[in-house]
Amino acid sequence: MATSVDPATIGQYGTVRLLSNKTNHPIASYPIDQPTTTFGRDEACDIRMYFLWVSSLHCKLIFEDYKAFLTVSSPNGVIVDGCGVFPSEATGEATTVPLTNRSVLAIHNKRFIFEYPPKELRVKAFMTPRPKSRKSLRLSMINAAHILTPARGTPRHLSAALDLDVLRSPVKPYAQSPLKEMREEEVRVVDGENVVVVEQEQDLVLLEELDEDTSKSYPEPQTPTPSTPIRPRSNSKARMSLHKAVLVRNSRRALQRQEQDPGAPSNRPQQAGEPPATSYDQHEQHEQNASGHQDAGQQDYAVYSDEEEEEEQEEPQPVIHLTEILVNRQISLNLASCYRNLPLPPAVSASAKAWKRLPAYLGA
């Protein structure tokens, strides 16, 4: 038979309920309004458990994209749905496991059940911030022998000043510890004004409201939450891709120019029986390669997709000349021919003589 759920106990991310060890019914509810909820005996934890077996930061409930995960950092571990979860034995790093709706967590002799918001309220709960009327809550558990408790019976609100004074008095919950430092440690179980006290066997369960200025920050985790590392992309790959792109672009331009102007110098590879390339052609090719490397170094910010890189790798890399160099070469040949047909004045410089001999050097 389904039981009605009090909407006031439903948090933005869900609810953690403390179960009775006898009846298996919830005896206390903690609404989750923050993406991180901590369990432990540290005073800064959201759910404080003042027992020797519990670590300072035992575990924490975290949400990523509104999905619940439990990170266990205590060597004593947590039982999640009947399976023990412990930190890594090799490195000691915390272990993170996902939680499903109504997952049961067992810490010490306390059992909690985690619940997402009901389906009909889930979207509204995720999108709606915590109501301003609801203050921050804190759940604490301690052995009743350390505190003067109210009479056994049903839960009730503590409003008497004497009861609040007793609960606010410092106590030593670790008197049985073999460590002297822990035996002398004092804690104050209650700080707020409105407190609900429930007795569970020999322990007290206290749910209190806190003002925003009195709430404490979360304790520092012992180990960072595991995450997928992000490896930066190497720049050398982008530079090489850019160099290939420059060569392919100039190759296409040269082929288009050759189709439009059949009389232009050909960029095709050397065929059998043809004379070898001149030293000028080799020098020109060297300058072209150097220019391509320089362009790649100046534009290393360019980014290409993986598909473009695969296409560039599959396409063969022809032996080409830059269009600009081809144009300059043709202009040089024309100028040299003009100089050869003109008479040289007496005070001509050595450079003019060189220009006149240039056609023979170029094989024109």
TrEMBL record:
Residues 37-85 form the FHA domain. SUPFAM superfamilies: SMAD/FHA domain. Residues 210-240, 253-298 are annotated as: Disordered. It holds the Pfam family FHA. It comes from the Eukaryota. This is FHA domain-containing protein. It comes from Botryobasidium botryosum (strain FD-172 SS1). The lineage of its organism: Eukaryota, Fungi, Dikarya, Basidiomycota, Agaricomycotina.
